[in-house]
């Protein structure tokens, strides 16, 4: 039997992925590609919903592609491609926009969060319609499963609503996707502010482990992580967020359950604990960093691979777009 179709994507909106993206997205996707027909995109059309410098954007797309591959996405197995290389994304987004209610789009909490500081007047219309483009991404590939963090759940729900509405109005066209929400332990927090999620837009660089940081810097950031004064190495999200975060990180790096790690560190101090976490993160990330740099040293090869995968993606996407246009009385 064919494997279920899976779709996910990340924005090329920073110069490197961080440890949160690695554990929360890449590690999960690496596992899922084994028994799913997976499409992973670099969503550059989403990234330009906020201003991007063209040269920087081009480099960030390549860096993200290299990090996907170095992090274990197999471009021969999964289809790893750049969203803007497949014209059907923008085209289907337009069609879906015509069946999306203005009020419905206005209820998306990510837009409200992202415009809370600068005000909605200053935001682009593209940022407002971001979830409709995301719906187009998912529906073009008849994805059944969409692995995302809980912040994206509402967008997948909107995708389901739009697909159901379209099918009802114009006849069966789209597959109804299901979100697959990230497990709790896969959510990684800022090393300096362990109640906030590790985020590329955080103010303090010391709290973020970048996949392109050199190993000495990575180790230093982990050894300087904020903990607490109680001295016990056990997970308790409420009263010991820093220690819990380090336990989750170590568990993700080694595959050892948190309960076993608690037993292993029983009676030990934070110094020993942090050193073990730092060693494990460096052991995992140093080869990923090296492989990324190797891939980036040959941009022509990377571009060739992305072009070939865009052709693969377009074959699937164009067929779905044609179906949708036909159903609507276009073409
Ligand atoms: P920002 O940091 O600006 O909120 P981001 O780092 O969340 O952005 P995205 O492009 O929104 O980056 O997310 C890419 C993927 O990484 C998503 O699947 C998201 O769930 C995951 N992810 C992001 N941050 C974390 C984190 N701290 N822990 C676990 N997963 C994360
Ligand atoms: N909005 C998502 C990225 C994204 C995505 C998608 C995820 C764009 N299109 C389709 C899953 C499926 C984010 O910011 N993490």
List keywords for this structure.
7% strand; two-stranded parallel ribbon; 3-stranded parallel beta sheet; binds adenosine-5'-triphosphate; binds L-tryptophanamide; mainly alpha; 331 residues
Question: Would you give an account of this structure?
Answer:
This protein has 331 residues and is mainly alpha-helical. The chain contains 13 helices and 5 strands. The protein has helices at residues 19-32, 44-47, 54-70, 88-97, 102-106, 109-114, 125-140, 153-170, 215-223, 241-254, 258-264, 270-296, 299-328; strands at residues 5-10, 37-42, 79-82, 145-148, 178-181. A 3-stranded parallel beta sheet has the order 1-2-3. It has a two-stranded parallel ribbon with strand order 4-5. β4 (145-148), α8 (153-170) and β5 form a beta-alpha-beta unit. The longest helix has 30 residues, at 299-328. The radius of gyration is 21 Å and the shape is globular. 39% of the residues are buried. Adenosine-5'-triphosphate binds at residues 10-11, 20-21, 23-25, 148-149, 182, 186-188, 197-201.
């Amino acid at each position: 039997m064919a494997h279920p179709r899976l779709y996910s994507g990340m924005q090329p909106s920073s110069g490197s992925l961080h440890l949160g993206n690695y554990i929360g997205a890449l590690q999960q996707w690496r596992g899922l590609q084994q028994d799913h027909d997976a499409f992973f995109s670099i969503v550059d059309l989403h990234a330009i919903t906020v201003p991007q410098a063209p040269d920087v954007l081009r480099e960030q797309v390549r860096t993200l592609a290299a990090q996907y591959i170095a992090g274990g996405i197999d471009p021969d197995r999964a289809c790893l491609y750049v969203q803007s290389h497949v014209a059907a994304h923008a085209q289907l987004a337009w069609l879906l926009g015509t069946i999306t209610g203005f009020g419905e789009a206005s209820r998306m909490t990510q837009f409200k969060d992202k415009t809370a500081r600068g005000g909605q007047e200053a935001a682009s219309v593209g940022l407002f319609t971001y979830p409709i483009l995301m719906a187009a991404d998912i529906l073009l590939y008849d994805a059944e499963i969409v692995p995302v963090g809980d912040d994206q759940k509402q967008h997948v729900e909107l995708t389901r609503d739009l697909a159901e509405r379209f099918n009802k109005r114009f006849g069966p066209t789209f597959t109804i996707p299901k979100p697959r929400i990230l497990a709790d332990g896969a959510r990684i927090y800022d090393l300096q502010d362990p109640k906030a999620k590790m985020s590329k837009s955080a103010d303090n660089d010391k709290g973020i482990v970048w996949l392109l940081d050199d190993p000495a810097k990575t180790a230093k950031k982990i050894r300087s992580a904020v903990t607490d004064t109680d001295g016990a190495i056990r997970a308790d999200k409420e009263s010991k967020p820093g220690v819990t975060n380090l336990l989750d990180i170590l568990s993700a790096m080694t595959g050892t359950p948190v309960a076993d790690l608690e037993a292993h560190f029983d009676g030990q101090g934070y110094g020993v604990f942090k050193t073990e976490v730092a060693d494990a993160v460096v052991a995992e990330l140093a080869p990923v960093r090296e492989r990324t740099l190797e891939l980036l040293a040959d941009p022509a090869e990377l571009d060739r691979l992305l072009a070939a995968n865009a052709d693969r993606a377009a074959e699937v996407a164009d067929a779905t777009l044609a179906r949708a246009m036909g159903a609507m009385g276009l073409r």
